[in-house]
User: Which sequence fits this backbone?
């Protein structure tokens, strides 16, 4: 079953707002076994909206339209649909009464504009009558069309709770089943992974894709078919082959992130981590604490952006800073050891480097980074020269630091 | 002058990757005075690619195509274009010799696949022959078509350095001029801003838009016209009216961010900041250090995620933690004061709260946050109950903390 997605809004075609909702919808539709033929983004122009909708109805099995359902004058989707499909708008009494109740209790909107939300094309069924979210469904020529608000969290809620179940019921047994695995790899070039995977005798129905998703490479394996048991079995079998071949080069799968994987390993080993950051300025701490429950393995850290903080909070000797500079192996060592001793952590990592764009020299160019790891046995420092802009250097440094913790916990040597 | 953008790739239509490049291109094209009629995202399917390209050429003045230019078998854009526009592919000798040179020095690619990159549709001109980036231009029926790689940073570079200057030369004097201002507001509802702006007597040509861009609201003012001087003048005049009306509710404009604005104010006052974070886990430090040159006003901070770190690094008394709990006004006060004293900063902020999803209670529900600010005069703590998921609570807390610093430096009371 094929669908098209039409996103509407001048804020999208002028690039003021990035359209994230179409991709979200495509992802969930694909996972539910529906394929997307095309996605379109157009302005609040009735003629264009009507044209895009009619073309889609002529070639696919369902259409999802987002945006332009609000109460203001530039929201023109319903008007355009009414015209294009020759379905006059009529008031939905349930919505109208909800709006009037709302207006009675809160007089700050001009009634006319809000009541506009109750006028829907003939035959429309509201998707979520009890909430304040706009959104409706039309069946036209035997094909379902869904109209959702453009506000991302409302669109997401209605897609998951209303559109996907309705669509699966409508096309019951007629959508494909699909199984997908996304393997996440950091620090290995795409071509190296590609060459290894090519050596495998994977099943014919397996589709492999490589996608650089900074700072990672994602390797996706997709299997689509008529039978859920078959696709699941193929996914499991071929997934094993890929994991066996690539081993710990794969740090995680599907929704796992480097920080969630590191968290899981720390929890399993019952170890606590703390992090001393300079050039990454809090990014590593932030990534680690973005995971709910991270207090079970993460103590915290020090952002020693100024040298004075390296001395006072991490006990880095002034002489080391003077003699070797803040960006040096010696200082990275002292930072990791000082962090570990004072915080009482089992493992501490330290990061010192030059994220740029300023601050580089011939000797230590922008991108120079030292990452230290101290545990009960030893302290090891790695030296890197990353390239990219400030954000990229910070993000690569953070991911590398977390990968060093992962490899340490898995007892893999960092290459 | 009107254009269309066509993004190609199965990774986009399956929602595995979010298409951010089309929005980026639309934004820069709009700023340069070009309007986007529609943006399309389609899979690596030659028939669809050709159809989308021909339809666009039939109705707009230029087309931008991204993706599908790589060396692998699923990169089909050039093949599709050659077919659709009836322009056989031929080898570009310059690119071919570059590729052969590269292969001589590095034998890890099968030559056949890389040489594919040198075969372009008849009449194509490469956009950046000296780099390793794919990308070319075709003039077809008097209209320029640009083909760019889908990899975001390559696409962005070629768009800015090659496409925009070429397009402006091609349509010299025929594109509209545009002036746009984006005013950034945090912590005020859209309707309140809307009601205030409505009272203004803005010029007729001014288009106003409101966009919730979490955690901010963006108010955009757009003026388009034939004459650059007129649009600039109108933008300046109406911009003053808006800024006068909204005052310090606007924290920044255009590319400014809360962290860049706070940085600018600190620099102007020659003051140094340090930050003690608990529930935000490093996000505030990270935002501050994402700005190049932040070492001129930012010392660093402590991520006291565990209570033991609040005691040892910030000098928070154990009794306070026991009696009032880590999430309390007393602890926020002690954290801010301890951070300021030990770091030697002029101003320190502290954050302690419950980001969830676990850890809430009847007394202190998820979203409870205390934010403290200590300076030479006093320590003030604000108490908030934010709603949202973990990320949203962390992000709202960080933005609020930075806004508290901004208001302190501007001597505005936090409402």
Assistant:
């Amino acid at each position: 079953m094929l669908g098209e997605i039409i996103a509407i809004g001048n804020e999208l075609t002028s690039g003021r707002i990035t359209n994230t909702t179409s991709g979200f919808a495509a992802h969930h539709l694909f996972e539910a076994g529906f394929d997307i033929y095309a996605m379109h983004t157009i302005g609040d122009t009735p003629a264009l909206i009507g044209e895009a909708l009619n073309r889609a109805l002529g070639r696919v099995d369902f259409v999802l339209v987002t945006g332009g359902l609000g109460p203001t004058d530039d929201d023109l989707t319903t008007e355009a649909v009414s015209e294009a499909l020759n379905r006059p708008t009529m008031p939905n009494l349930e919505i109208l009464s909800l709006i009037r109740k709302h207006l009675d209790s809160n007089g700050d909107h001009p009634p006319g504009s809000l009541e506009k939300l109750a006028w829907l094309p003939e035959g429309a069924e509201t998707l979520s009558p009890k909430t304040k979210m706009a959104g409706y469904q039309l069946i036209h020529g035997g094909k379902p069309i869904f109209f959702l608000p453009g506000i991302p969290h409302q669109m997401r809620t209605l897609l998951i709770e209303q559109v996907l179940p309705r669509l699966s019921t409508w096309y019951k047994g007629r959508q494909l089943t699909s199984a997908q695995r996304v393997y996440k790899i950091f620090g290995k070039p795409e071509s190296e992974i590609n060459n290894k995977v090519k050596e495998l005798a994977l099943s014919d129905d397996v589709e492999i894709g490589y996608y650089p998703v900074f700072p990672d490479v994602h390797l996706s394996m997709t299997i689509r078919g008529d039978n859920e048991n078959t696709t699941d079995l193929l996914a499991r079998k071929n997934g094993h082959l890929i994991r066996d071949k690539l081993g710990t080069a794969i740090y995680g799968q599907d929704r796992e992130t480097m920080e969630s994987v590191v968290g899981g390993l720390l929890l399993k080993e019952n170890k606590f981590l703390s992090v001393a950051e300079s050039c990454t300025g809090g990014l590593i701490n932030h990534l680690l604490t973005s995971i709910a429950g991270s207090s079970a393995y993460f103590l915290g850290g020090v952002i020693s952006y100024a040298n004075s903080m390296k001395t006072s909070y991490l006990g880095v000797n002034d002489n080391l800073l003077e003699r070797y500079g803040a960006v040096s192996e010696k200082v990275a060592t002292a930072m990791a050891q000082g962090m570990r001793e004072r915080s009482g952590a089992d493992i501490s990592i330290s990061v010192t480097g030059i994220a740029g764009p300023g601050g580089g020299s011939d000797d230590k160019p922008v991108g120079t980074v030292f990452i230290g790891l101290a545990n009960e046995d030893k302290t090891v420092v790695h030296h890197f020269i990353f390239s990219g802009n400030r954000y990229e250097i910070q993000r690569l440094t953070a991911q590398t630091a977390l990968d060093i913790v992962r490899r340490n916990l898995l007892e893999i040597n960092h290459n």
